[in-house]
Amino acid sequence: MNKLLIILLLGVSSVYADQQILMSNIESNGIMTKVIASATISKSTNPAFVGGWYPVFFNQYSDIKIQHIIMRIKNGKVSKLIVSYDKNQVLAKQIVTTIQATTDFNVQLEHVELVDDTAQYNHDQVVVTVYTKREN
Question: What is the side-by-side strand order in the sheet with 53-58?
Fold first, then answer.
């Protein structure tokens, strides 16, 4: 088991892991720092990766962005794609058609009506939300 030591050094927090018993004071660059917290963690030989999502923004058609998404699909890294748009349905459909023709992947097309209130939105922008597969 490793000891996880969290220290505060001049307003910047740092994490220090050591398999030995840690002292209450640590010297770093000649500055003595007081230990503020410690916890015990176990070392895993196979860390778990958790799936997530990330957006890809399109103001115009971009072959580079599309090819990156297609590569991730072909490598088995994508579980779901949602293409959302407000006003630019032509671009959204072009993105969906290209991805489906190249990969045979089911892409969800979603119309999202954005209302300007306290924020101003780019109504012509298309957002592809890429959901990554969960890995163990």
Answer: 53-58, 126-132, 78-85, 107-111
Residue bearing tokens 């489906």? 100
Reported as a single tens digit per residue, the pLDDT across 12-30 is 334 444 444 444 455 555 5
Q: How far is CA 10 from CA 15, 33, 117, in A?
A: 14, 9, 42
Q: What is the mean pLDDT of residues 50-59?
A: 90
- The structure tokens 């892991």 sit at 17
| Coarse DSSP helix, strand, coil percentages of the chain, rounded to the nearest 5 percent | 20, 45, 40
Q: How far apart are CA 42 and CA 61, in angstroms?
A: 47
**Can you say how many angstroms the Cα of residue 41 is from the centroid of all Cα atoms in its chain?**
25
The burial of 107, by beta-carbon neighbours within 10 Å (0-12 exposed, 13-18 middle, 19 or more buried), is given as buried
82 phi and psi angles, rounded to 5 deg: -125, 125
The two three-digit tokens of residue 125, written as one number: 């922008």
**Of 54, 50, 72, 52, nearest to 128 (Cα)?**
54
Which residue type sits at 91? L
Alpha carbon distance 98, 37 (integer Å): 53
